[in-house]
Amino acid sequence: MDGSIISGAQGTQWVEVARLGDIPRLGSRVVSAPKGDVAIFRTSDDSVFALDDHCPHKGGPLSQGIVHGHNVTCPLHNWVIDLSTGEAQAPDIGCVKRTPVRLEGDRILLALRA
Amino acid sequence: MNMLSPQRQRLVVIGNGMAGMRTISELLARTPHRYDITVFGAEPHPNYDRIALSSVLAGEKTLDEIVINSRAWYDENHIRLITSDAAVSIDRVARTVTSASGLVAPYDKLLLATGSKPLVPPLPGLTLPGVCTFRDIADVNQMITASETQKRAVVIGGGLLGLEAAWGLKRRGMSVAVVHLMPTLMERQLDVAAGTLLQRDLDERGIAFFTNGQTEEITGTERATGVKLADGREVPADIVVVAIGIRPNVDLGRACGLEVNRGIVVGDDMATADPDIFGVGECIEHRGQVFGLVLPIWEQAKVCAARLAGDEDATYVTPPLSTKLKITGIDVFSAGALSAAAEEDEELIYQDKKRGTYRKLVLRDNRIVGTVLYGEVKDGPWYVQQMRDGADIEAIRDRLILGEAAASLTGTLDPTAKVKALADSAEICGCNGVCKGTITSKITELKLTTLDGVRAHTKASASCGSCTPLVEGLLLLTAGVDAKAAGPKPMCKCTAHGHAFVRKAIVADSMKTIPEVMNRLGWLRPDGCHSCRPALNYYLLCAWPGEYVDDQQSRFVNERNHANIQKDGTYSVIPRMWGGQTNPRELRAIADVADKFGIPEMKVTGGQRIDLLGVKREDLPAVWADLNAAGMVSGHAYGKALRTVKTCVGSTWCRFGTQDSTSMGVALEKMTWGSWHPHKVKLAVSGCPRNCAEATIKDFGVIAVDSGWELHIGGNGGIHLRGTDLLCKVERPDEVLEYCGAFLQLYREEAYYLDRTAPYLERVGLDYVKAQVVENAENRRALYDRFLYAQTFAQHDPWAAQNENTTFKTLVPAE
Ligand code: SRM
Ligand SMILES: Cc1cc2nc3c(=O)[nH]c(=O)nc-3n(C[C@H](O)[C@H](O)[C@H](O)COP(=O)(O)OP(=O)(O)OC[C@H]3O[C@@H](n4cnc5c(N)ncnc54)[C@H](O)[C@@H]3O)c2cc1C
Ligand code: SF4
Ligand code: FES
Fold first, then answer.
1. What's the rounded Cα separation, in Å, for the pair B191 and B374?
2. Measured at the alpha carbon of residue B207, what is the angle toward residues B204 and B213, in degrees to the nearest 5?
3. Chain A partners of B554 at a C-beta cutoff of 8 Å?
4. CATH number of B559-629
5. How far is the CA of B69 from the centre of ligand 4 (A)?
6. CB under 8 Å to B729, separation ≥6 — which residues?
7. Radius of gyration over every alpha carbon of chain A, rounded to an integer in angstroms
8. Which of B443, B523, B566, B743 is most exposed, with the fewest beta carbons within 10 Å of its own?
9. Closest to B263 in 3D by CA, of B277, B276, B251, B271
10. CATH of the domain at A82
11. Considering the domain B417-479 in this protein, what is its CATH number?
12. pLDDT the model gives residue B280
């Protein structure tokens, strides 16, 4: 991966973490970030989302769940998490921290604090 | 303030709670001016709805919303309310009540309504800061404050109160564990089955449970830091809520010499041994019974008010009681007996595992004496009504368990009204452009009676399924058949079609990919969900061996990662041990792998092989490579697939063995390993009827006898124990293999995803399987051939060739 850093506001750095092709459609990959693992998801419409790889229920690795629509089902106890908001679907209550992510061509850039 | 008038009698009430104030409201409704009323309340608040404290804790209501009688109400009714001042003594001779602040109130009639106190066991650490009970507003405030700054809560007690406390704290963001003395929750209101379902549902909502947990000590020096159980388990906590029960608050009654057992004893007239002193609520005992729910208390209040108003005939009878749990989204109901107690008692039970519902009725002499409902409780009050009426249920016995709608002929809406009103030209199915007239004439012409029949001949409801209710209405209207009652359940919320329909459509219409199935059958969501995608993937795999390309993204994590995920996100790895046999080389290789990768735990499984627990995701490919190098392959302990073939030592060593069961087991495992199924499949071979390999609780079990092999099917040792049914007896080893392959293939082709052989067998019946596998030799061989053909594509070790698989690797951001 070629290193490319684009500086953003408030010391945010957009860091390239993968190419779109590194992640299967309806799949996910784990990125190791300073504050812990972040899961990057790729949905069937080729949107990408980034959430902490840590289910609000009991910390299950969301990256290993089944992706459907803009949701992922946690592999441990089937909570369904909305990838765009990080919120758990009712009746469950909880929220996962999102990390800003964007696609530039086929490069996936993650906003990591400098 | 009340006006003093000599004719009026003085009524003093001790306890400004639910029972006392309900009695006063009832009394005022009957006779507003008979008494000058004084109320002593130990709490600083006017009367509030104690029941709703659970909702306040869960953040669903505010304290203001739960006040029943505001201070203005007391004023309007000229009631003298003294709050924050407990009554401390009663002088029955002088007829006065004295309060903690020294106030003395004379009475003509006295009402005791002191409620109950939380039961607290004599535990070390009970007085530490951070320990509280769950009874009043002060307790709830303490819990809410704690939840704002603290993280972990332990609730001692898995009864109604304890669970509501746990749920409230959970809703407030704490991580919550419940310690419960008994093996199942709410054991006084729920039977074991319902209690188990409840625990499962709460567990899924993130509450941890320590059942069979006897608390020995609350730990901590400055403040509570956790609880310690008698068996050595320790549960850390920032706050500890003790909710193990209540005890009638009888102190005042006892001190002034009234008769007291568990509660202050009252008669049917609600009077104590002293005819001028009455009692209501949780502080009393009536005919040996004490109370913890408001329903009987409302009755007591009525009777007591009538007596105080001068009605000499009012008598109290305890109504049948029922319990409901107030946890949003969890429906539990119980009343009366929880299970058959006497020999003549009977139980009716109905359980739908998939929908998570459970119903039980306890009958005696054709009358309901108890019910436990889980998941679906709307019929609860109706059952209680039948109980109360002592209704004879003989005539509706067959439908009784389905509830009121099924049991009574009246009160159901006419489901055909809507379709009746439509013109023949009205379009019913938008996807396929089918009108009402076409559907009704086909139904009549072809004498159709099923939804699938209508779909096959008209295409109506065969695509997206959203018109299914209309088509069902037409079937009922035209042919008089209720397709809904018999109709299959949809696979999931993404479709209106049931498993059987989809399985058939895949084969009949040659559908070969998941998107194709979803498109043609009108899936409601573009890529389905975690429930339908794995099912479709399996159905396609089974239908088109060698042709269908397995969709990894539609596989559950375990099957995608070829290992079992654990609660901490690590994995367990179980290599295959053919028929439970192993040797020094394999054991050494396993030991080396454990050392090399720092695997924290090894365990012998219940399936006769060795589990390596705590393997990191990134290490998986390398662990497999080492095991492969020693000749071992995946044990598929993670798959809806063939798991284990358990064996006993058999005739090679055992003095009772009749055949070589170990070799037979190995042969079966060599034939079946790698096969995918609707659910997991387990086999076993025992060398004689002593059955040391437990073959009669396996999906396919073999028991060797002198004259050959007995073949057993449909056993299950899991959640619902089911012994096998005897399929047949065969003489030769090759026959064992053929029958096994044929039976497994039948199951693979016909079962619904996530049904094991036991429910499959119960659905189709033993006779059907015998007809397919035993009686029809040609069909058996065809099934067997199809199984072996599929195996030529399935028997590739999924662990091999994962070395290259980079998806196990964590990505690192570029510098
Ligand atoms: C490891 C093992 C326990 C052990 O340490 O002995 C085990 C572990 C699990 N079992 Fe089991 N079962 C194990 C033998 C059994 C047995 C005993 C047997 O096979 O003789 C049974 C009862 C027999 C039977 O299946 O009929 C058993 C009945 C279950 C059930 C209930 C299945 C049912 O139809 O009712 C489940 C739940 C399920 O599958 O939905 C289950 C589910 C599980 C899961 C997969 C729970 C989960 O979803 O994570 C556990 C995975 C742990 C892991 O990561 O390794 N396990 N499980 C055993 C592995 C055997 C092996 O070598 O592959
Ligand atoms: C959290 C919670 C949830 C509940 N949920 C349900 C439910 O879902 N369904 C149900 O049917 N029941 C439920 N209950 C039980 C129900 O609240 C009680 O059965 C009911 O409140 C009992 O009424 P009571 O008047 O006897 O006692 P209380 O309502 O407790 O009133 C007694 C009052 O007397 C006061 N008092 C005691 N001693 C003195 C004294 N010496 N001087 C002055 N005042 C005194 C107390 O401070 C208290 O305010 C629940 C209870 C709790 C705590
Ligand atoms: S291994 Fe089986 S029995 Fe043991 S906890 Fe897990 S699922 Fe339950
Ligand atoms: S940890 Fe995610 S659902 Fe339980």
1. 10
2. 120
3. 26, 66
4. 3.90.480.10
5. 43
6. B705, B707, B708, B709, B710, B711
7. 14
8. B566
9. B251
10. 2.102.10.10
11. 1.10.10.1100
12. 98
Distance B227 CA to ligand 4 centre (A): 25
DSSP state of B772: I
**Beta strands B239-242 and B131-133, pairing class:** parallel
Length of chain B: 815
> Does this chain's domain B9-116+248-308 share its CATH topology with B131-244?
yes
B595 secondary structure, DSSP code = H
In tens, the pLDDT along A31-40 reads 999 889 999 9
If we measure between CA atoms, which residue out of B12, B88, B20, B113 comes closest to residue B256?
B88
Give CA–CA dist B267/B277, Å, rounded: 11
Mutation choice for B interface testing from A19, A52, A64, A92 by most B CBs within 10 A: A64
- pLDDT 10s digits, B657-687: 999 999 999 999 999 999 999 999 999 999 9
Domain B131-244 coded CATH 3.50.50.60 = yes
B331-407 belongs to which homologous superfamily? FAD/NAD-linked reductase, C-terminal dimerisation domain (3.30.390.30)
**A73: CA distance to ligand 1 center in Å?**
22
Which residues approach ligand 1 with their CB closer than 6 A?
A: B 564, 566, 572, 574, 603, 605-607, 609, 611, 635, 637, 643-644, 680, 682, 697, 716-719, 756
Rounded Cα distance, A40 and A29, in Å: 5
Among chain A residues, CA nearest to B807: A29
Count of positions (residues) in chain A: 114
* Dist CA B394 CA B792 (whole Å): 57
The CATH class for the domain spanning B642-794 reads alpha beta
pLDDT at A4 over 70: no
- CATH dotted code for B9-116+248-308: 3.50.50.60
- To test the pocket of ligand 1, the residue of B605, B636, B757 to mutate (highest count of ligand atoms within 8 Å of its CB) is B605
* Cis before A91? omega within 30: yes
Q: What is the mean pLDDT of each run of 10 residues along chain B (815 residues)?
A: 64 98 94 95 96 91 89 95 97 96 96 96 93 96 94 95 95 94 94 94 93 95 95 94 96 96 96 97 95 92 96 89 82 88 87 89 91 90 84 86 72 59 80 85 87 81 72 85 67 88 90 92 89 97 96 96 95 97 96 97 96 96 95 96 97 93 97 98 97 97 96 94 96 97 98 96 95 96 97 94 83 81
Provide the domain limits for residue A14: 5-113
Query: A108 to chain B: which residues are within 8 Å by CB?
Result: none
- The C-alpha torsion from B739 through B742 and B747 to B750, rounded to 10°, is -140
- In B, minimum Cα distance to A1 occurs at B814
Tokens of B335: 């009343």
CA of B719 to the centre of ligand 3 (A): 11
Please give the average per-residue pLDDT across A93-112, as a whole number: 92
Give the separation between CA B235 and CA B393, rounded to whole angstroms: 49
Tens-place pLDDT, residues B306-355: 999 999 999 999 887 888 888 877 889 999 888 888 788 899 999 988 88
Q: Which of B527, B811, B815 best tests the A interface by mutation, with the highest count of A CBs <10 A? A: B811
Ligand 2, CB within 6 Å, residue ranges? B 14-20, 40-43, 50-51, 53-54, 86-87, 113-115, 134-135, 161, 164, 249, 252, 281-282, 292-295, 297, 326
